[in-house]
Structure formats: structure tokens, C-alpha cells
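WARN retry 2 of 3 for item q-0093 after timeout on previous attempt; input resubmitted unchanged.
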Amino acid sequence: PQATVIQAGKTFQVNVKISNPRGVPWDKIRLDIHFDPSFLKVVDQDDGNWITLGTNIHDAPYHDRFPFEWTRTNMVRNDEGQILFECGVFKSPLRVGGTLATIHFQALRPIPETQIAFRMPVEVTERLGTVLTRKRLDVLGDTEDAGDGVRGSIVSIVPRSPQESGEKQAKGKF
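OK item q-0093 returned
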């Protein structure tokens, strides 16, 4: 997974992307993303979203590329460290890829590594877990391996510099 270094207190963005170079048809996507709420918090960004209740990930800039006909969920549970997002189409399947949504995180406190990870279901018919399906069949990567084709991210949170945190630098010779 890609690693990002960020200072505590700062915000950063993570794009959720679908790679579909062969144009495989799909009709539903469900994201179940987990993070450690001791170190990360999702900052609400919902201007123009289909769902704006509560804390959300930002999907509005990508509506033209992903013209979903229904949206069931766009919800962040910061206290649990979980992001749930689900939408799809009824009629013609989509055959596109690209950025689906942007997650705006705030780094809360320093830690060498914390993960942002997709929870994968054992079966695509489970109610939770990340899936990309066509007629309820898995089309995500290797269809025999539920986790194939999915990558999370690793974040390293470093302390803020003394200048940014308002601390005075020590004077004198060392």
C-alpha cells in the first residue's frame, strides 16, 4: 500500500479509485473502509453530494463519471473508525473507472503507522464489506479471491513542528 506522511493536526485527502481498464461491466459498489479513530478522523465534505446527512465522504465531483441511479449509504462513523458507502445502477451497467470519492482525513496525533483498509466480505452476499458486483456476482479483481484488486493506505503521523504548534524554540548553545 502507498504510504503518506502527515503532521498531527493537518488534513489530507485520500481518493477512492476504481481501476477498470478493460471496461468490465458492474452495477453496484459498496465500500466498507476502516481506520483507527485514535489517530484519524474523517472531516465532513458533502457539498453537492447525493447524501448530506451526518459526516460524509465527497462524491459530488464524480457524479458525471459515475451516474448512479440509487444511493443507499454515505456515512462515516468516526467513533468506530468506519466509512460505509453504497450505490449503483438499475438499468445499464457501468463500465468506467476512475476516482469515485475523496475522503478528507485529519491526523489527530503522532504514530509511526496507521492503516486505512478495506474490509472484505467472505461472500459478496454479506451485508457489509467492500464489493464491486454485476448482478450480485463479484467482478473485483480475481473473483475467487475476495481481497484481490483492493489496496488500502498507510499513514505515518509525525509531530507538528514547534513553529506550527506555537511552541517556542529553545535558545542557547548545545
